C-alpha cells in the first residue's frame, strides 16, 4: 500500500510541477506545518486521556468499572478470568471516550489473558466498531479545521448500530472453540 501512495504522490508532484510549479514548494511547506500543528494537538489530547487512564488504574477505578460492567462483559466474553475483565473494562471505556489508542495496551493485555478464540474475535470486532460516547479524536480533528457542526449524537447512533451488528455477526458466524 505504501508503494501505491508513493506512486500517487510522485505522479501528483510531477503533474503539479508542469501545471503550477510555484505551488509545489508552497504546498509542501504548508502541509508540513499543518501536520506538525495537528500532531501536537493530538499529542496533547492523547496525553490527557492516557493520564486519566493511569489515574483510573491508580485509584482502582478499573476494578470498580469492571465490577459494574461485569454482567455485560460476562455475556460478551464468557468464561474469562477477573484480570481479563479488568483489562477489558479499561479498553472498552477508553473506546467509549473516543480514545481507542489509549486503551490499546489494555486491549492487548486482555487478549493475552483470554482463553477462548471467539472472545478474542469479539474484542477485535467491538474495538473496530467502538461505541463512542465522546469521539475525542474526531472532535480534535474537527476543531483544528474550525468546524462548528455537532457530531456527537450522529456518531453515537452510528457506533451503537455498528457495534450491535458486529456483535450479532460474531454470535452468528463464529463457532466456540
Point out poorly predicted stretches. none
Query: Can you write the helix and strand succession as a string?
Result: HHHHHHHH
Topology, number of strands: 0
Largest sheet: none
Compute the gyration radius: what is it? 21 Å
The proportion of residues forming helix, as a percent range, comes to over 70%
pLDDT averaged over residues? 83
Subunit arrangement of the protein: single chain
Which strand-content bin applies to the residues?
Answer: under 5%
Approximate shape: elongated
Total of helices: 8
User: Span from first to last CA?
Assistant: 34 Å
Care to describe what's here?
This protein is mainly alpha-helical and 177 residues long. The protein has one domain. It has 8 helices and no strands. Helix 1 runs antiparallel to helix 2 and helix 6 runs antiparallel to helix 8 (152-173). The protein is elongated. The model has no long low-confidence stretch (mean pLDDT 83).
Amino acid at each position: 500500500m505504501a508503494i501505491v501512495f508513493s506512486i500517487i504522490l510522485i505522479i501528483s508532484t510531477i503533474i503539479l510541477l508542469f501545471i503550477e510549479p510555484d505551488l509545489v514548494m508552497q504546498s509542501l511547506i504548508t502541509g508540513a506545518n499543518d501536520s506538525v500543528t495537528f500532531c501536537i494537538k493530538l499529542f496533547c489530547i492523547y496525553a490527557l486521556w492516557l493520564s486519566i487512564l493511569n489515574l483510573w488504574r491508580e485509584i482502582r477505578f478499573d476494578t470498580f468499572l469492571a465490577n459494574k460492567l461485569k454482567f455485560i462483559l460476562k455475556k460478551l466474553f464468557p468464561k474469562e478470568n477477573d484480570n481479563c475483565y479488568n483489562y477489558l473494562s479499561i479498553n472498552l471505556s477508553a473506546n467509549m471516550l473516543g480514545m481507542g489508542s489509549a486503551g490499546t495496551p489494555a486491549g492487548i493485555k486482555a487478549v493475552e489473558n483470554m482463553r477462548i478464540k471467539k472472545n478474542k474475535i469479539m474484542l477485535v470486532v467491538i474495538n473496530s466498531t467502538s461505541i463512542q460516547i465522546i469521539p475525542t479524536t474526531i472532535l480534535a480533528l474537527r476543531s483544528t479545521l474550525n468546524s462548528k457542526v455537532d457530531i456527537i449524537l450522529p456518531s453515537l447512533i452510528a457506533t451503537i448500530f455498528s457495534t450491535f451488528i458486529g456483535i450479532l455477526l460474531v454470535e452468528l458466524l463464529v463457532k466456540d472453540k
